[in-house]
Design goal:
The complex is a heterodimer of chains A (416) and B (735). Chain A has 416 residues and is α/β, with parallel strands linked by helices. Helices cover 50% and strands 10% of the residues of chain A. Chain A has a domain of 208 residues: Translation initiation factor eif-2b, domain 2 (Rossmann fold, 3-Layer(aba) Sandwich). In chain A, helix 3 packs antiparallel against helix 4. Chain B has three domains: 249 residues, Spore Coat Polysaccharide Biosynthesis Protein SpsA, Chain A; 117 residues, UDP N-Acetylglucosamine Acyltransferase, domain 1, CATH 2.160.10; 172 residues, Serine Threonine Protein Phosphatase 5, Tetratricopeptide repeat (Alpha Horseshoe), CATH 1.25.40. Chain B is 37% helix and 17% strand. In chain B, strand 15 and strand 16 form a beta hairpin. In chain B, helix 1 crosses helix 5, helix 15 packs antiparallel against helix 16 and helix 15 packs across helix 17. The N and C termini of chain B lie far apart (106 Å). Chains A and B meet through helix 1, helix 2 and helix 17 of A and helix 9 and strand 15 of B. Chain B: Keywords: Cytoplasm. Chain B: It is found in: Cytoplasm, Cytosol. Chain B: Its main location: cytoplasm. Chain B: It comes from Digitaria exilis.
Chain lengths: 416, 735
């Protein structure tokens, strides 16, 4: 895939340099990149093109995730694409098998990472697949592929080991698989693009007449959500906490006023004082973890605690690309990013505080500027995603619908 | 895909073209010239073996930061000018994948090599000759760290150029307060004084070598008269990032004596007013930019990186190789994932530990950067130091505020005092002590260093070193070392002995000024001393003529100097005068010579008059016999002979007064022989028209209010003054 490599490294660089930020933009661009990876991927003659394809995606995905581990949406999209490949493969295989081995499907659906399954059955199934169908079998798909960064070689070597000549049917099925996968990724991109619509459709059910809504910072999902409620002739007021240090709340306030929404801007530190007058807190998220915890812009935990204290519902709106199948471990540190202190302080004004030559050599002035907060699931009342409202404890189930369990760790099998 | 390409180009392209660019199809590519050579010796001895731009700064070579920034700032094409160690730089560019990576969205990097360039000026002349630059370009040195957005500065530059084609350069400056004690910026460079027009941001005056001892700057009055308003800044830092028009290159070619970018080019343009070219400034509001010029700035910038001012160029976000990434832990501790860390070892705040490094029991690491593949033994204390890759530090060593290069081996118990620089592969023996501020290298110190404008590379084996190899470890030129031998000598010798390598002696002024630009923070004693000096300076500003103040005091210092100056001047005038008497030098030539002296000492005309008068009187005294009569006679002769000369200097009443005062002073202090004759010589001076009656009357008037002791001579010549007054009245009556 010589044509994709520059694109991949370009995007990796952008992620590394933090030129692309925000889960929506990142998710979209990742999906587009993976679509071109798939379309540029030269399908080998092997029986398990799906595995080769998945490996190609995995190889790229690994680089992308490493480039910016904080943007969880990258990993989410990579996992979604892997899941898509698998599903398309299953469906095409299922069509090919046509009732020959329904058991194959059902068997493997639920114990994929089971590597030490009896070799006999594997051999039998492989034989079945090869002799009867000449189509990629599930079994070969699940086998460990014994190599290597070069995907094309992988494909060809497995092709050799399978040792079968191509047939016309084979080719069409490969082409069909690729085509289907590309189409499905296209659907995924559409879904990412239009995730606001199904979410904001639910706005009228949640926002009632004359309610007071509080939000923090600026989230496009929240904005669309409030717009939708306004368009449905709901009248309500919004408190916008400005969201220091980036003050995105100011932008949101402007946008809301343009749409004719009654808006009040408050400082982040005034949230606790104002929360008693608020009927509902609606916020966006950077990522929603599998346990129902939320990674959100800094300051959100404080808002959630204030809401809990005054029994105000805390609603998180998030598109499905923000659902992350990982469980957070030490999220305050590991799933966070410290940005430049220049957001907080003017370098010139404080430069004399940082003159290390006249201090003891150790900096006396430290500035910590974290990007995200972790809101534990117990503080969240409701998640609103494109599929409807869910409680935090249901998130793991929702996530299982989007991702395959064995893709949680995106890593090429060879390096594992 | 095509959509993506165009987007990635957008950042730099759109900015370069400005808002209303003519050719919509393709904005001109933004070019950059990166000087991968600092043309100084500040980082010696390390730079003898590796070019400065490849020295690791928190695990990444400096040039990597610069190139990364250039690329993210939207530069399309960068020329890396390499001179010293050009092969290493080129090799690095190849290896790191910068060179030959032409493609959409990425910056093309081309190395430009020249071996005979000895300054930035030469480098730019080479660039010009090769015709590489077609439009406006960014000029930057390979040791500059920044994360600023060039967009605004570029747009300003372009807009200005459209209006005024003479605006050839935009300099990026940043607000940063210098220390009141040391008059240095936090980067260890001298405080810069700039005058900037607040409206247009035009740079009017630039002085980076302000006279620290006197704390004053001299600004040409033309600057003040031509600009109704101007702002004087001493709280600006020069980032050494310039946006230049192509004219800059031709200016360098036309003025082939321009070497230094600031000292020659900027000042030259400002002072000489060549063709009316102007330089403008752009103040950096958000974002970071700093140049690593010396060890102090190396330390400061490293700490800024660790404190994330350079985000996204911080260790956990970008790593140069695909080695295991480092993660940020609490308190700004960056640790690679494969560090072997003993449970009892402590890593303090603001530290970075590279991959594959192992740290033994009970170690303490504070405010330090430890490179990759280092082995650190037990009970080691490393404080505020920069340890590069593959260093071995054995048990019980202490390293504070020093720089330890690749491959250095510190044997057990070695102590490295603050401010040391250990160059590549140096070995320090058991229990050895490396004294503060020493620089140790395996290479001998080149003996023929002449100026600070010199090259990084002066050939390493030039001349025989005059700094003897330290502690009998190795004789000159004997490069081969048997490790076992070293071991033995290391164990046998303790104390200050046991360093393999040459200890470099610092330059003439170096020892005193070492603390200014070293990694080590300024010691408490030094700070107190400076504090003392500053407070004393404040207190004594109004009585600056007190010569008993300690010499640390700047203003009194200058007063003392002033007195010295005049007496020296007088002596020289006297000598000249005597030569004139002896050899009969032409009177005109004598005047010329004295005028020359006056200019050399930059004194007033009046001082001259005093000095000449003094000389004349002295000559009379020497010629005279011991009696008063003969003295009077010789004086009259001498005055008669030299009256023309004296008259030449007594054009105004002030100068005549000066002579009178001088005469008075002589009578009181130096040549008391004249004191009884004062009243007799005065009329003579009047007769020869050396001194007018106005001066004498004014002198008498002034003295009326003086002390009794001062009035001695006025009283002595009372009769004469009286006569003068009467004569004047008579004149009036006659009219």
């Amino acid at each position: 895939m010589p044509d994709v490599q520059p694109l991949v490294s370009d995007f990796v660089l952008k992620l590394k340099r933090r030129k692309v930020e925000g889960s929506h933009a990142v998710a979209r661009q990742t999906a587009e990149l993976l679509r071109s990876v798939v379309s540029q991927h030269r399908m080998g003659s092997s029986a398990n093109q799906a595995a080769a394809l998945a490996d190609a995606v995995r190889a790229v995905g690994e680089q992308l995730i490493a480039a910016n581990p904080i943007e969880l949406a990258v990993g989410n999209v990579v996992r979604r694409v892997l899941h898509i490949i698998k599903e398309e493969d299953i469906s095409s295989t299922a069509v090919g098998i046509e009732g020959l081995s329904v058991t194959v499907d059902s068997d493997d659906e639920y114990d994929r990472e089971d590597d030490d399954r009896p070799s006999l059955s594997a051999a039998v199934l492989a034989a079945h697949a090869r002799n009867a169908l000449r189509a990629p079998s599930l079994q070969t798909l699940l086998e460990d592929i014994p190599v290597s960064p070069a995907i094309s070689r992988t494909a060809s070597s497995t092709g050799d080991s399978d040792g079968k000549s191509k047939s016309a049917g084979d080719k069409t099925s490969t082409r069909k698989l690729k085509h289907d996968v590309i189409a499905a990724i296209g659907d995924l991109i559409d879904e990412i693009d239009s995730c606001y619509e199904p979410i904001s459709e639910q706005a009228v059910e949640l926002i009632h007449q004359n309610e007071v809504i509080l939000t923090l910072g600026r989230s496009r999902t929240v904005k669309e959500f409030l717009y939708a409620a306004k368009e449905k002739k709901r009248s309500f007021r919004v408190f916008v906490a400005e969201g220091a240090p980036r003050y995105q709340g100011h932008v949101l306030a402007k946008e809301l006023v343009e749409k004719g929404v009654q808006t009040t801007v408050i400082t982040d530190s005034a949230v606790f004082a104002m929360i008693s007058r608020v009927n509902m807190v609606i916020v966006g998220a950077h990522a929603v973890m599998a346990n129902g915890g939320v990674i959100a812009p800094v300051g959100m935990n404080m808002v959630a605690l204030a809401a809990q204290r005054h029994a105000v519902p805390f609603v998180v709106v998030a598109g499905s690309h923000k659902l992350c199948p990982l469980y957070p471990h030490n999220p305050e540190v590991l799933l966070n990013e410290l940005k430049s202190p220049s957001d907080l302080l003017d370098f010139g004004e404080f430069s004399d505080c940082m003159n290390f030559s006249t201090q003891d050599g150790s900096p006396l002035l430290n500035v910590v500027n974290p990007t995200f907060d972790y809101v534990p699931p117990k503080l969240v009342s409701l998640f609103v995603t494109d599929t409807g409202g869910h409680s935090p404890s249901y998130m793991y189930r929702l996530i299982a619908e989007y991702y395959s369990a064995d893709d949680l760790v995106v890593r090429r099998k060879s390096s594992a | 895909m095509s959509q993506k390409k165009s987007r990635s180009r957008g950042g730099g392209g759109a900015a370069a073209a400005g808002d209303d660019h003519e050719d919509l199809a393709r904005p001109p590519p933004l070019q950059a010239v990166l000087l991968a050579d600092s043309f100084t010796l500040k980082f010696r001895p390390i730079t003898l073996e590796r070019p400065k731009v490849l020295l690791p700064l928190v695990h990444m070579p400096m040039i990597e930061y610069t190139l990364t920034w250039l690329e993210s700032a939207g530069v399309d094409e960068a020329f890396v000018f390499c001179c010293a160690h050009s092969n290493q730089v080129k090799e690095y560019l190849e290896k790191s994948g910068w060179a030959g990576r032409a493609g959409a969205g990425s910056m093309a990097v081309t190395a430009v090599e020249s071996h005979d360039a000895i300054s930035a000026g030469d480098a730019l002349r080479v660039i010009f000759e090769r015709g590489l630059i077609h439009g406006d370009f960014v000029l930057i040195s390979g040791d500059t760290i920044s994360n600023m957005s060039l967009k605004d500065a570029l747009r300003e530059h372009m807009d200005r150029k459209k209006k005024d084609p003479l605006a050839v350069m935009t300099m990026i400056i940043k607000h940063s307060k210098p220390s009141v004690l040391t008059h240095q910026t936090r980067l260890g460079t001298d405080e810069i004084v700039m005058a900037i027009d607040p409206e247009t941001k035009e740079l009017l005056y630039y002085e980076d070598r302000a006279d620290n001892s006197n704390l004053y700057v001299t600004i040409d009055k033309d600057i003040l008269s031509n600009n109704p308003t101007l702002q004087l800044h001493n709280d600006m830092e020069d980032c050494y990032i310039d946006i230049c028009s192509p004219e800059v290159l031709s200016l360098f070619t036309d003025n082939f004596d321009y070497q230094h970018l600031r000292r020659h080019f900027v000042k030259g343009l400002l002072v000489d007013d060549i063709m009316g070219y102007k330089i403008y400034t752009h103040e950096l509001r958000s974002g970071y930019a700093a140049r690593i010029d010396n060890f102090r700035s190396y330390d400061t910038v490293s700490k800024d990186i660790i404190q994330r001012w350079t985000y996204p160029m911080v260790p956990d976000v970008i790593s140069n190789r695909n080695c295991s990434e480092s993660r940020l832990h609490r308190q700004a501790i960056y640790k690679a994932s494969d560090v072997t860390l003993s449970h009892s070892a402590q890593i303090g705040a603001n530290s970075v530990v590279g991959s594959a490094t192992s740290i033994g029991d009970h170690c303490r690491i504070l405010n330090s950067v430890i490179g990759e593949g280092c082995t650190i033994g037990k009970n080691v204390v490393i404080n505020g130091s920069y340890v590069w890759d593959n260093v071995v530090i054995e048990d019980g060593c202490q390293v504070s505020n020093s720089l330890v290069s690749d491959g250095v081996h510190l044997r057990a118990g070695a102590i490295v005092e603050p401010g040391c620089v250990l160059s590549f592969n140096v070995e320090v023996g058991k229990n050895a002590l490396v004294l503060a501020h020493s620089k140790v290298s395996l290479l001998p110190q080149p003996s023929n260093e002449d100026s600070d404008e010199e090259l990084e590379y002066a050939d390493t084996n030039s001349g025989v070193t005059d700094s003897p190899p330290f502690s009998s470890m190795r004789s000159n030129g004997d490069q081969a070392t048997v490790p076992s031998e070293e071991d033995e000598s290391g164990t046998s010798e303790t104390g200050t002995c046991g360093v393999v390598g040459y200890i470099w002696t610092s330059g003439d002024a170096g020892i005193l000024e070492e603390w200014r630009q070293s990694i080590a923070p300024i010691s408490k004693e030094k700070l107190e001393e400076l504090q003392h000096a500053v407070s004393e300076n404040d207190g004594s500003e109004d009585e600056s003529n007190n010569p008993t103040l300690p010499d640390k005091d700047d203003s009194s210092d200058s007063a003392v100097e002033d007195d010295d100056l005049i007496s020296k001047f007088e002596k020289e005038v006297e000598e000249t005068f005597q030569r004139a008497m002896g050899g009969g030098v032409n009177r005109d030539n004598l005047i010329l010579e004295i005028n020359g002296l006056r200019l050399a000492y930059s004194l007033q005309h009046a001082d001259c008059a005093g000095a000449v008068f003094y000389s004349v009187m002295k000559s009379a005294l020497q010629a005279a016999q011991s009696t008063n009569d003969s003295l009077l006679k010789t004086t009259a002769e001498a005055l008669g002979k030299w009256k023309d000369l004296l008259r030449n200097y007594t054009k105004t009443v002030d100068e005549e007064m000066e002579i009178l005062l001088k005469f008075e002073e002589m009578c009181q202090e130096t040549t008391k022989e004249f004191s009884p004759l004062f009243s007799k010589i005065l009329p003579f001076l009047y007769d020869t028209e050396v001194i007018s009656e106005d001066a004498i009357l004014r002198w008498a008037e002034e003295k009326e209010h003086a002390d009794e002791s001062d009035k001695v001579f006025v009283k002595q010549s009372e009769a004469f003054i009286q006569w003068l007054k009467e004569a004047e009245e008579e004149d009036d009556e006659e009219e």
